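Reviewer 2 asked us to include a model.

Predict the structure of this chain.
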Amino acid sequence: SDSYGCSGNSRNGQDGQHGHNGQTGGNGENLVLYVDVVKMDYANYLLVKVVGSNIKKMVYINADGGRVNIFTRGGNGGNGGNGGDGGSGADETEHCSAGTGGNGGSGGSGGVGGNGGTVTIYTTQEAKTYLANIYIDNAGGSAGTGGKGGRAGSGGLPKKSTFWDIIFRTNRGYRGNKGGNGQAGQSGPPAQVFVLNSNDIKTALGIK
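Predicted model (structure tokens):
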């Protein structure tokens, strides 16, 4: 150390902080569907009961061209945070040389997408012919994008600076690396279908 405080890294720019990694997407809910055909107003209707840990819903659709959408997609992975910029180095003084610019922080990695949920369908033989009216989307979540690398800090200038010193700043830090992208979640498997007798389905649906 000396009386002018020029030792160590006191005149160099600080490095930028690294970006945070993106969060992992949640998995889609595993669902059970109970399906039967009921007659109302001389028309056939598909009665669909959807049951999951956070959902219990009953839906009627016209069996002739109606449609019900079942979504149990995985959540998207979060994007990685951007790296912080490097600090600038101090300019040369009478007693101290110019400082070096700080390095930019690395971007955070993107989060992994969640997996799509599973769907199990219990139906009667008659209702099975209408299962095409039920659209299921259990795709995996999208991958998160990696964060940008932080910018390099500018180096300090010499006392007698030329135009090229100002433009190129040869003692600048390094730019941070971009974070890697996450991976997409896996899609859930095709729905499993089980045919039960009409009484068992009606009991599950709570109808007579």
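The two ends are 91 Å apart (CA to CA). The helical segments are 125-128, 163-168, 198-205. We have added this to the supplementary material.
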